[in-house]
Amino acid sequence: MAGAQTDAATRKQIVEYYDGSWFDYRAVWLNQATLAKHFGYWEPHIRNHAESLLNMNKQVAARVNPKPGERVLDAGCGVGGSCIWLARTFGLNTVGISLSEKELERARRYAKERGLEAQCTFEVQDFVATTFPDRSFDIVWAQESFCHAMDKGAWMKEMFRLLKPGGRLVIEDWFRTRRPYHPADEALYREWLAGWAIDDLATKNEVLADAEAAGFANVRLDDITPHIIRSVRRLYGMTVALYPGAYLGKLVKLRSDVLHRNIVSARLQWRARNRNLWISGILSAQKPQEPANGTSVKRSESKSESVPATTPENPETEEALQL
After folding, report:
1. How many structural domains does the chain have?
2. The model's pTM
3. 53 found inside a domain
4. Per-residue DSSP letter, 247
5. In the predicted model, what is the mean pLDDT of the chain?
6. 233-277: pLDDT as tens digits
7. Residue 278 bridge partners (DSSP)
8. For the domain that residue 253 is a member of, what is the CATH number?
9. Which end of the chain is more exposed for a tag (fewer CB within 10 A), N or C?
10. Does some domain include residue 3?
11. pLDDT tens, residue by residue, 301-312
12. Distances (CA, A) of 242 to 9, 238, 247, 264
């Protein structure tokens, strides 16, 4: 087990956010094909929100090239969407972890409804201090969950421990553009993150350094910001339209403080992007086949570019997108 655990106050904040914001996610974002809480990846051939969510899955998968029978840890699995998609699409055995038992109850139900309960298991675990043995997984997968790690260096070390030699790591998340910001920008940035139970984001250089310090090789961070802007704009537009009713709902106590902060943060994220306070990226890395020997690891930072998705076509998934 890793040494540093998530403190009780932070755990409580994260659980309260995801349990308390479920209504908003279910009402305006999720679809039955992906059960995804993450942003979409837009390209010219993508026709709608549902396809963009599926395309993000494909883009993330392309970085780690999953093979049938491999074991995957989804570190921050939400309601199990990625675990279910990976199991169904690639024939993987997936383990999803979350701090929220309510999320995991939904994940287990969704997996069972799809006949995938044997391939998809879910556990309450702290992702910086899990109880899994060393070298338990072929792939670690994290979509918009790494941001919640208070100690991102400790998170990297724990994922390195859990991967088998030759195992692959992939993270899709947001990263701050620089440190420090002007005080007014820092205040905007902090207010945005607070509503989503995030303490701080890593910069590109910080996350690359943390990955290398943990022992990872072939560390690469692709800036995919142009591909998610349409998703961010969609969310912002929805909040503009829904905010008056949501605010009234808060006043008459039909909407909780968590739900209100969620919608406020969705608006602030757009303002923060316009101030160039964050980017979206996909980080990929590999645990060396042999223990690290102290030699330097070569970095590769690319600009926004689409990696050809290796996902095989799945008629069941494509049909579900039409629902």
Report:
1. 1
2. 0.90
3. yes
4. H
5. 90
6. 999 999 888 888 888 988 988 899 999 999 999 999 999 999 999
7. 176
8. 3.40.50.150
9. C
10. no
11. 545 455 544 444
12. 31, 6, 9, 11
